[in-house]
Amino acid sequence: MPYVKEVFDYLRRTSPSQNEFYQAAEEVLESLRPLMEKYPKYRQHKIIERIVEPERQILFRVNWVDDKGEIQVNKGFRIEFNSALGPYKGGLRFHPSVNAGVIKFLGFEQIFKNALTGLQIGGGKGGSDFNPKGKSDNEIMRFCQAFMSELYRHIGAHTDVPAGDIGVGGREIGYMFGMYKKLANKYEGVLTGKSLKWGGSLARTEATGYGAVYFAQYMLEDRGESLEGKRCVVSGSGNVAIYTIEKLYQLGALPVTCSDSNGMIYDENGIDLELLKELKEVKRVRLSEYITHRPTAKYTPIEEYPKGCNGIYTVPCFAAFPSATQNELNLTDARNLLANGCICVSEGANMPSTLEAVHAFIDAKICYGPGKAANAGGVATSQLEMAQNASMVSWTFEEVDAKLAQIMKNIYTNAKETATEFGEPTNLVLGANIAGFRKVADAMIEQGLV
Fold it and tell me: Is 125 an annotated catalytic residue?
């Protein structure tokens, strides 16, 4: 039985019913076959067996009281996956879909994503099955305080530095930071994504979306193409999608779609960015309200999507930016994109494409930027926030944006050179996985069996 298959079978046996984790692990482990054949030291040191097991898994109960005075109970998670390169780093997700398998897949991806940035950060992830939608500010504050009353024991500026993710924005980070400060009696950079008034970094909000567009730009430049004047589709309408759209406009592209969990907007004249920000960042309402302000646009509820498809990916485009959630883009969607002329996919979300869709993009040899490379801009800028906190300085937006652009270029170059080294120059999945794994694995070997 091949070595990689042995490890994968072990995961299925010891971590049952964690399908998202299996998917993330399979993608990485399959990519590592040529590395294992070329460098037997990784097998000798049992690196794969060690790297697929988190260093620490924390599961806790979160009790809080809603506005009706009723007690509510949620699950809290923190997976501290690998600290070979630095403190654990990765977001907190508040969403009803959160479970151990989802957090584990996100933490596993984070190891290699963080390694690719070239910065000194390890991989971790956390969150809760708490749903912030429909909750009052006071309910969200009480939940965040209850969540942090347990999490604070396990995090710190040099231990584990969480950030935001789906359902966790500046408001939630603020409530959690305030509770951490009170409980730990420390004012330190223990969370990133903070307000600019108390330790946040300019360009952090924009970083993941901006980074995904920068990555697409570098892929296309290598093939003599550009985004200028090109139609692009974007999924999602959260932080990543909004700032993907913003950067696309800055580079002269025309983003024509966005979506939420209820449906999608197609605006052939280009998404009205200011309206989108008003609806999602200020009013926090459903995207269906977009057409009341922009009647020339078309709203399609999810129930009316073509069977087996995500409506976003039926729209003809030059480039696609999946920026909503995991597994939103399946094989049928991939085939629709390719048939409609899409030559570039840059993933703003974590693992938004199924394995079958990924293989379709690789086989078609289009510009395909996997999430762990293309959306690493967010965590990279989180580390820049940590650096500013540690040195008690604040950089300008332009300085941070320039550093972000250079980090994304370095990630692309590293993934491309590694893919070329192993004989598949257009396969950035292989390149990113091997480059990220090799950096972490070498550090683990040098630090001994710990």
Answer: yes
* Residue that is last in its domain, among 336, 369, 402: 369
Backbone angles phi, psi at 135, to 5 degrees: -90, 150
Q: Is residue 327 part of a domain?
A: yes
In a domain, 427, yes or no: no
Q: How far is CA 159 from CA 59, 86, 215, 379, in A?
A: 18, 8, 30, 16
Distance CA 174, CA 197 (A): 11
On whether the CB atoms of residues 313 and 282 are closer than 8 A, the answer is no
Euclidean distance between CA atoms 156 and 150, whole angstroms? 13
Grouping H, G, I as helix, E, B as strand and the rest as coil, residue 424 is coil
Q: How far apart (Å, rounded) are the C-alpha atoms in residues 384 and 205?
A: 13
Give the domain-ending residue among 132, 154, 188: 188
| b/e 413-423 (16+ beta carbons within 10 angstroms → b) | ebbbebbebbe
Position of tokens 């979306």? 209
Distance, CA of 386 to CA of 158 (rounded, Å): 10
Rounded distance, CA 164 to CA 430, Å? Answer: 28
Catalytic annotation, pick one of 89, 104, 113, 125: 125
Q: Which residues of 223-242 are buried (b: 16+ CB within 10 A; e: fewer)?
A: eebebeebbbbbbbbbbbbb
| Range(s) of the domain holding residue 159 | 3-188
Give dist(CA 40, CA 403) in Å, integer: 36
- SS3 (DSSP) at 352: coil
Helix (H) or strand (E) holding 183: helix 170-184
Residue 290 domain-assigned (yes or no): yes
Strand partners, 163: 91
Nearest to 434 by CA among 74, 135, 165, 31: 31
- Ordered per-residue pLDDT tens for the chain, 450 residues: 477 788 888 888 988 899 999 999 989 998 999 999 999 999 999 999 999 999 999 999 999 999 999 999 999 999 999 999 999 999 999 999 999 999 999 999 999 999 999 999 999 999 999 999 999 999 999 999 999 999 999 999 999 999 999 999 999 999 999 999 999 999 999 999 999 999 999 999 999 999 999 999 999 999 999 999 999 999 999 999 999 999 999 999 999 999 999 999 999 999 999 999 999 999 999 999 999 999 999 999 999 999 999 999 999 999 999 999 999 999 999 999 999 999 999 999 999 999 999 999 999 999 999 999 999 999 999 999 999 998 888 999 999 999 999 999 999 999 999 999 999 999 999 999 999 999 999 999 999 999
